[in-house]
Amino acid sequence: MTHHQGDRLAFDRAMVTQPVWNGFDLAREVTGIADNVLLHAGPPFPGPGAITRPIMNSACVAAVYEGLAPSLDAAERMISSAEILLKPAQDVNVVAPLAAVVSGSMPLHAVYDAWRGQHRMFAPINGGNRPSLRLGLKSVAVLDHIRWLNTRCLDVLQGGLAEGIALVPLAVAGLKGGDDCHGRTPVAGAALVHELVDRSPNGVGDDETLEFLKGSPSIFLNLWMAATKLMMSRAEGVPSSGFVTAAGGNGRDVGIQVSAFPGRWYTVPATPPEGAFDVDLPPSRALGAIGDSAVVDAFGLGAMAKVRTDPPTSAKSDHGMSVGEHPYFRGTGLKLGISAMAVAESGLAPQVSLGILDCEGEMGRLGGGLYQMPVKPFRQAAEDVLARQQSSSD
Questions:
Q1: Are 240 and 340 in contact (CB under 8 A)?
Q2: Chain mean position to CA 281
Q3: For the purposes of burial, counting CB atoms within 10 Å of the CB of 39, is it exposed (0-12), middle (13-18) or buried (19 or more)?
């Protein structure tokens, strides 16, 4: 499939990027959000009554963490009455996994472009295998874990960061070791922890935190989401391009943004991912697609990186949606960047590797699966890009 000239330009901008994690910043300082604003994955909700239960649960925890409400139940009343507001994280350069919610005083990983200065993207610390905010549970255990993550765990991460850690080499090492950079990240995660330990001047003295990091195979994912979003964001603003620059779901709707129209969400109702449950519950308990981790697959990795068994260390992209090869990923056989124009022409949309959450917010993660993104939002975006091109040439 021949890609449009605008897509090539957007792709080239995205690929000339070197994402480096070099510190932490408080959410309010880098986003400018008001004290009563919380950030969630995917496109915006039309109003408080549309907030999906897992995101509502996480928002209640975040509100209590932030000191906006004295209790989880009081927080829900304040959110329902719009005293506390929810807004899309990606609209302010933050990515949130699954049902996670970010509040103003939360420390966020800062990932910047080492080649072109201080353009940055942000992500919360991954909750690992403990009661995590991303699971959408309204509980004191989640609140306690967030407090621990953002203090003791934060101290260890900061202590091992040194001058910064380039993230693409870790992703490439992960791919060569069998990761897909989304649903599977244990190889990159182990490499990240090894770097942190090596860079800690006096070693890591906090055994509990070190055990947590080593036992959290997804510890790399939030950082890689921010790195991917950073690269995609560099492609924004090409008037003739349908290069995908945002992707995510909030459990109610799923959507994308494209280069030509920064900040404009193209959405459709979110259906659940297809996958087996790890618990004995009916299929009706599955929440619609949720999470900003869809940026990884919309970049061409995750479910879009089909791993071959022979040879075991290579991967390939066998679809026509991707724009081109990234210089860092040479030797992996992967093509990266998704074009809405190509999706509209082929009728094939990306698949996304996603966790399946309980729509009632009681059981957290029910399992993992694949979400087939609908063609419709890509087609709508492509039509708008083509209409703009037509009007400018008239």
A1: no
A2: 27
A3: buried
Contact criterion met (CB below 8 Å) for 90 and 229 = yes
DSSP annotation string for 107-133: EEEEEEETTSSS-EEEEEPP-TTSS-G
pLDDT digits 0-9 by tens, 302-345: 998 863 333 444 444 445 666 667 777 777 778 889 999 999 99
Residue type, 222: N
Contact in structure between 340 and 241 (CB atoms under 8 Å)? no
Count Cα neighbours of 142 within 13 Å in the Cβ-side half-sphere. Answer: 27
> The pTM is what?
0.94
**β-strand pairing of 322-324 with 315-316:** unpaired
Distance CA 156, CA 132 (A): 19
Q: Please tell me what DSSP assigns to residue 203.
A: -
Helix 221-233 to helix 186-199 angle, to the nearest 10 degrees?
Answer: 100
Task: Mention the CATH class of domain 5-10+237-393.
Answer: alpha beta
For 285, half-sphere exposure in the C-beta direction (CA atoms, 13 angstrom radius) is 17
Nearest to 290 by CA among 310, 270, 266: 270
Q: Is 248 helix (H, G, I), strand (E, B) or coil?
A: strand
- What tokens does 248 get? 């995510």
Euclidean distance between CA atoms 361 and 15, whole angstroms: 38
The model's pLDDT over 251-271, given as tens digits with 9 standing for 90+, comes to 999 999 999 999 999 999 999
What backbone torsions phi and psi does residue 286 show, to the nearest 5 degrees?
-75, 130
Residues whose CB is less than 8 angstroms from the CB of residue 123 and which lie 6 or more positions away in sequence, other chains included: 94, 95, 96, 97, 108, 109, 111, 222, 223, 225, 226
CB-based contact 63:78 (threshold 8 Å): yes
Question: CA 30 to CA 23: how far, in whole Å?
Answer: 12
Token representation of residue 123: 């992500």
Altogether, the residues listed in the chain come to a count of 394
Rounded-to-integer distance, Cα 359 and Cα 61, Å: 17
Residues 6+ apart with CB under 8 A from 350: 247, 297, 298, 303, 304, 321, 338, 343, 373
